Amino acid sequence: MRSPPLILDTCVVLSLYATRRMEALLAALPGPILIAEAVLHEALYVHVVVEGVREKEPIALGPLVDAGKLTVVAPESQAEFESLLEFALVLDDGEAMTCALALHRGLRIATDERKTIRLIGDRIAVVGTLDLVRGWASDAGASADEIREMLAAIADRGYVPGQDHPHWPWWSDLAEGRNT
């Protein structure tokens, strides 16, 4: 049985973009890979560390959209708009639109936001950045150094999983150089 399409939340877009391997990560996923219109407008830059200085680097998702790697979607039905308004009372615009679309279109959602997961996790299938990176790394046969570099970029972007995260042991082992 094939998995439903995946829609990416802003936090996951930022983390995947920060890895510098977003196109390869997306190509490894069964398509289509969707992004809400609001996320496209929220995902403006990632923080990168250049020579010890934290800087903003603009995000260019246009080429991924133009190449068909990402498909931009927006609410179309009355039910989607109503859910968007309901979710927008407690979530950021990108998260709210992503959740509304996932709920009404039977999509899986990629998010790392705990608040979002608590709100919709019992109604929508949820995956996170580390699920996507770990799956890609396994399928691609990536080296520990490649994975470590990706995880460092994600951490520089500002996302580090908590110790209660299911992938914490994998993350911490790689970050501390225990996996080779």
Description of the structure:
It is built from ten helices and seven strands. It has one domain (1-180): 3-Layer(aba) Sandwich (Rossmann fold), CATH 3.40.50. α1 crosses α9 and α5 packs antiparallel against α6 (93-105). With 180 residues, it is an alpha/beta fold. Helix content is 51%, strand content 15%. The strands form two sheets. Strands 5-2-1-6-7 form a five-stranded parallel beta sheet. A hairpin with a 2-residue loop joins β3 (45-50) and β4 (53-58).
Number of strands: 7
Q: Which fold name corresponds to the CATH topology?
A: Rossmann fold
Count of discrete domains: 1
* Poorly predicted ranges: none
What does the main sheet amount to? Answer: 5 strands, parallel
Distance between the termini: 34 Å
Radius of gyration: 16 Å
Please write the CATH class name: Alpha Beta
CATH level-4 homologous superfamily: 5'-nuclease
Shape from CA axes? globular
Measured by DSSP, the beta-strand proportion falls in: 15-25%
Structural class: alpha/beta
Overall mean pLDDT stands at 90
- Write down the secondary-structure element order: EHHEHEEHEHHEHEHHH
Helicity level: 40-55%
State the strand order across the main sheet. Answer: 5-2-1-6-7
CATH architecture: 3-Layer(aba) Sandwich
Number of helices, counting only DSSP H or I runs of 4 residues or more: 10
Topology:
Layout: E1 6-8, H1 10-18, H2 22-27, E2 33-36, H3 37-42, E3 45-50, E4 53-58, H4 62-66, E5 71-73, H5 78-88, H6 93-105, E6 108-110, H7 114-120, E7 126-127, H8 129-140, H9 144-157, H10 168-175
Parallel strand pairs: 1-2, 1-6, 2-5, 6-7
Antiparallel strand pairs: 3-4
Helix pairs in contact: 1-9, 5-6
